[in-house]
Structure formats: structure tokens, C-alpha cells
Amino acid sequence: MRAALKTEDGRFELADVETPRLPAPDWVRARVRIAGICGTDLRHWKKHEPELACHIMGHELAGEVVEVGEDVTRVAPGDRVVIETVLGCGHCDWCRARRYNLCPDLYPTRTQSVSRAYAEYVVGPQQKFYCLPDHVGFDDAALIDTFSVCLHAQHLSGLTINDRVAIIGAGSIGLGQLMLAKASGADVIVIDTVAHSLGLARRLGADAVVDAGSADPVQAVKDFIGGMGVDIAFECAGGESMPTTLPQATRMARRGGAVVIVGGFDAGETAIPLEWQRIQMSEIRLIPSASFAMRDIRAEQGEVLDLVARGKLRTQELITHRFPLERINEAFDTAQDKERTGAVFVALEI
């Protein structure tokens, strides 16, 4: 099959590689149709990481089932599906408790099968494949992974109707967080430095937006609320922004409020000074959120598919660019340089 392989300098090169086979009778093989580029992928872009050389990356994908094992009952060849890529080992305490997003072997496990979106075919266990309604396109479905991250963060936050919420970062994660918060009855202010992203946030229902490049975002949030601070601040920028945005989030939260850390960190230690005395004396909760899994009896990815199918989460406004797999390096450059290109969610057509 055709695949985009990571190079030592952090780019991609196309190559013909072996098509994955079904390793067990309850596994499924699908032809990938659409794959997305997210912030996690961009943190590896053009970085010298020899350990990733020749690897197939990508974890936001939808496609069509082409082969099933003899024990598969969930899907059939020809089904249009979205594929969940959060796959744990299945044997550890966290997997047994259905908190597989916390599996110690999550990344080594998922990257061997379902988390290989930048290729023509992927395989995975049948429970990771969700059939799409006819009116949900492959491109719509490619955003379901992103929105599932947001839903997990909202579940952890305890957000409820009439809460006041600040969201730092208006990328696809921040905009998904916005739509979920508004659907739950919250008042939401969104902070970013990119004008087109803030404009999109407005169109998706934000009650207020702040350009952090021209205004003090903490003061703007307090003015929005009336001086007290928000019930919940979601940090959705992550990466290199975190030393600035995480302290800001803690200053936006009211006494007794919460900060949910959705944006990702790079590997290793990251030193971020915080006003720990004020955080402690104000009982501000810091809530790390990692990917998604189950909530009670429901898979969070399945819940998001239902929300998209019922029109409660919008997708098409977020899909700003589409590229064929052959232009994957151009696609990554476009996604990275969002201030110039206006990129939000960049889709690869495989």
C-alpha cells in the first residue's frame, strides 16, 4: 500500500509498504479515505526525531471497511466508518477499568495498528469501528477524534448549565470545546491571537472573543464575567504556548473554580512557574485531561458521533484545507502557518 513515512528530519516521504493483515478473528481492515492533522502531529513537524523515522503517523481518520475477521459482528465490508485510535493493551488495570486512555502501553499499542492514518489501510479490533450514518461524510467523521478529546475534558470539568467558561486557544480543539460548552448552556469567552480563528469562534456561538495580542486576556475575562473570574478555564493551546497560557488560565479561574489542561505538552520536563499559594488558598482545581475513553456505559467517541449526526456539533466550518496524500508536506506547512493560511482543520484525502 501507499503510505507517508516519517523522515529523520520530521517531514514525510511517500513509499510503498506492506498492507497490514488481520492479526485476530475479531479484527477489521479499512481503506482510509480522510485523515486529519492535529496539534499533536504538528509538535513532531520538522523536528529531528530519528526514533520516528519510517513510522506511519496520524490518528484522526475515517474510511470504508474492506475486510473482517470471522468473529466480527459489529461491521461488514462496505460499511463507512470512523475509527477510534485510542487503543490500550487490553490487559492492564486501567484497560480493565475501561480507562484505556491511561494505559501505560497506550502509544506502543495504538501505533502498531489503528494509529496509522497517513496510509491507505489500517487494521484494528472491531470495537474501534463505528458505522457512519449516510448523511455524515468521511470529512465530518475525521473531526470526531478531536471532538472526543473535548468531550472527555468537559466530562472531567463537571461543566453544567449557566457556567461561565473561558477557552484559551481557538484551534479545532478549542472550537470543539466551545461548541460543547454552548450546547450545555454555558456562557463562553474564547482567547486567541489569530483573527480568523476568533471570527470563526464568534460564528460558532462564542459570547465574547479576545485577541491576546492586543489586550490583556485575564482582565478581559474578568470584565466579561463582572470581576470574579470564570467557573472553568480550558487551556486548549498547549505546546510552546503553555508557559504563558497555563498561568493565564489559573488567573482567569474564580476562587473554587477549575482549570482543565487540554492542550498537550512535549515529552520531558516543562518548568512553568505558577502562583501556587493563590491556587491553593483559592482551591482552584487543576484537572489534566488526556485523550478520551468511556463515560459510564458509553464510549465518548460514540457519543460524539451521535452529536455530529444530530447536528449538535458543526464540522464543515472547521475544515479549511484539503490536500491529497502526495502533498502531505505542503499540508503540514499550511496547518503550521495558520496565521498566514487561515488553517483550522487540514484534511488529507488518502
TrEMBL record:
Keywords: Metal-binding, Oxidoreductase, Zinc. GO terms for molecular function: oxidoreductase activity, acting on the CH-OH group of donors, NAD or NADP as acceptor; zinc ion binding. It comes from Sphingomonas metalli. This is Alcohol dehydrogenase. Its cofactor is Zn(2+). The keyword Transit peptide does not apply. Residues 10-346 form the Enoyl reductase (ER) domain. The keyword Zinc applies.
